[in-house]
Automatic annotation (TrEMBL):
GO cellular component, one term: membrane
PANTHER family, sorted: SOLUTE CARRIER FAMILY 22 MEMBER
UniProt main location, coarse: membrane
InterPro entries: MFS_dom (IPR020846), MFS_sugar_transport-like (IPR005828), MFS_trans_sf (IPR036259), Sugar_transporter_CS (IPR005829)
Name this polypeptide is given: Major facilitator superfamily (MFS) profile domain-containing protein
Domain of life assignment: Eukaryota
Keyword flag ATP-binding: no
GO molecular function, one term: transmembrane transporter activity
Transmembrane regions listed in the UniProt entry: 49-71, 91-111, 123-142, 148-166, 187-214, 229-247, 324-350, 370-390, 397-414, 426-449, 461-481, 493-511
Naturally occurring in which organism (per UniProt): Puccinia graminis f. sp. tritici
Domain Major facilitator superfamily (MFS) profile: 49-516
Keyword terms, alphabetized: Membrane, Transmembrane, Transmembrane helix
PROSITE patterns per the UniProt record, alphabetical: MFS, SUGAR_TRANSPORT_1
Length: 531
């Protein structure tokens, strides 16, 4: 078929069978056929990029899963008790679990903004490097500090680790979106985010392998102190893929889109600052208009912060701010329920009596096995359903449908909690479905939306703010779940999470469908209209 050039309106949808190719004119695109076979076969460069970009999510999910299992091990080692509540205070375990997410909030905003200001190439590997340092320091916690000292040490170092992991959210989203073909962008972003599922799976497998290796000494000889080596090995294994990926990120060049943005800023600053502002100031000085001259000079100084000014200028418009509100609010509400369940899954499993074993090793192994079943049957497949359908049915139906089904499932479990607590198999089925629709739903699309709806020049900042609001929800969930469950019961907490899921579906109505949309084209079109 002959290639043709068309005029494209901002946010105009394109056919799923067409490939968008950027040309010099920011308002025009070329369209050429894209076979369904090519859609599912990543190019070598795409495959390499996806592996580099997805490692951060692998680490994040691995950490999320393993800390959920490591806390009971710490409790056995340092307090001689079974369960996920450190000592007698539910909050103690919650703070340790929430530490990484607390760091993520700062990292997402910091690295997202820096990535827009200085470019992705410099900032991207720095985020992973910080996560590696935090992990090393976490597993190096000295036993000489005593139980309380170890918990404090781990909490501080996991916050540092979280800053690095947090930076990976906006950076990976931006790096992939900057380079992606429009009608493959959702698929590539979902593939990147889907590494969370593999991180969960790897966490479960590593936990079971390490526990099995120490079974004889712990179960056979009662050497509980060996749990000290178990939890350090479990948390430290993630350093292997992290270090391998860091080398690749250091060699990753800047994307064409971001290079173009950085060049445009330099040209704009040079033109406005040297050829425009100083000349105009001299003219105003000569005619005696000192006040206007000072104003022009002041504008020149402000142009030095052009990237930050762009954020303010772009989001000062309600139509853009509305989208930012929706992406941040939806991610916040999603993570309340997602992390409320994920970080406390071991606690809920204990509440239904699945890990009734009183022998420490068997208790830890049963807990890991239950979490593994949920991951393999529900958590991981959900990502790939999204990957398959996202370019066909779009982001908005998946997000709204996911929120509604999550709310319904949480309401069912909350309403029939006592009955289900006597039927572990039925409870696990509900949790498997819940994890499936988290990922074939809003957990994936809340990541995809900010990377697609905002243009390159503010994408890192917007993705970082949206992700940070999500992590605020995660921190609230981690710190409050244990406390609330003791006051209103686990079923009462699940009712609250059901309500937040339904609210997320309502707020999602503010978002447009981004399938086939090019935010950079729309941004250029909008700027051209303002000239």
């Amino acid at each position: 078929m002959e290639q043709r050039t068309i005029m494209k309106k901002p946010f105009e949808k394109t056919s799923a069978s067409l490939e968008i190719v950027r040309v010099a004119d920011p308002i025009h695109v070329q369209v050429q056929p894209l076979t369904s076979e090519r859609r599912w076969i990543p190019k070598l460069s795409e495959a390499k990029l996806l592996l580099i970009a997805s490692t951060g999510f692998f680490i994040d999910a691995y950490d999320l899963f393993t800390i959920n299992l490591v806390v009971p091990l710490l409790n056995i080692q340092y307090n001689g008790k079974l369960g996920s509540k450190l000592g007698n205070a539910a909050l103690a375990g919650g703070v340790l679990k929430a530490a990484t997410n607390i760091g993520c909030i700062a990292g997402q905003i910091l690295f997202g903004t820096l990535g827009d200001v200085y470019g992705r190439r410099i900032v991207y590997p720095a985020a992973l490097g910080l996560a590696i340092i935090g992990t090393v320091l976490t597993i190096a916690a000295p036993n000489s500090l005593g139980p309380q000292g170890v918990f404090i040490w781990m909490t501080i170092m996991r916050i540092l680790m979280g800053i690095g992991i947090g930076g990976d959210y906006p950076m990976s989203a931006s790096v992939v979106s900057d380079r992606a073909n429009i009608n493959r962008r959702g698929l590539l972003l979902t593939f990147t985010f889907a590494m969370q599922g593999w991180g969960n799976l790897a966490g479960a497998i590593v936990c079971m392998v390490v526990l099995s290796a120490f079974k004889e000494s712990i179960q056979g000889h009662g050497e509980i102190g060996h749990f000290n080596a178990v939890w350090r090995l479990i948390l430290g294994v993630i350093l292997v893929p992290a270090l391998a990926t860091l080398y690749q990120r250091l060699r990753l060049p800047e994307s064409d889109r971001m290079t173009e943005v950085l060049k445009e800023r330099k040209l704009k600053k040079a033109f406005e600052g040297v050829q425009g502002t100083h000349i105009m100031a001299d003219i105003l000085d000569q005619i005696g208009n000192k006040e206007a001259s000072a104003s022009v000079q002041q504008s020149f100084q402000k142009s030095k912060l052009s990237a930050l000014n762009e954020f303010q200028e772009y989001f000062s418009k309600w139509k853009h701010m509305k989208h930012l509100f929706a992406t941040t609010a939806c991610w916040f509400l999603l993570d309340l329920s997602f992390y409320g369940i994920a970080l406390n899954q071991s606690m809920v499993i204990a509440d239904i009596g699945y890990d009734r074993a009183v022998e420490p090793w068997q208790n830890a192994f049963d807990n890991t096995k239950a979490n593994l079943i949920i991951t393999v049957a529900g958590f991981l497949p959900g990502y790939y359903f999204t990957m398959f359908f996202i370019e066909y049915i779009g982001r908005k139906p998946i997000q709204i449908g996911g929120f509604l089904i999550e709310g319904l499932l949480l309401a069912v479990v909350a309403g029939d909690f006592k009955s289900l607590s006597t039927k572990p198999a039925g409870f696990l089925v509900c949790f498997i479905l819940l994890q499936f629709f988290f990922n074939f739903g809003a957990n994936t699309t809340t990541f995809v939306y900010p990377a697609e709806i905002f243009p390159t020049r503010v994408r890192g900042f917007a993705s970082g703010i949206s992700a940070a609001c999500g992590k605020i929800g995660a921190v609230i969930a981690a710190l409050s779940f244990g406390e609330l469950s003791e006051v209103i019961g686990t079923n009462g907490v699940l009712w609250i999470l059901a309500g937040t899921s339904f609210l997320g579906a309502v707020i999602s109505l503010l978002l447009p469908e981004t399938k086939g949309w090019d935010a950079d084209e729309a941004d250029a079109f909008e700027q051209a209209q303002q000239l």
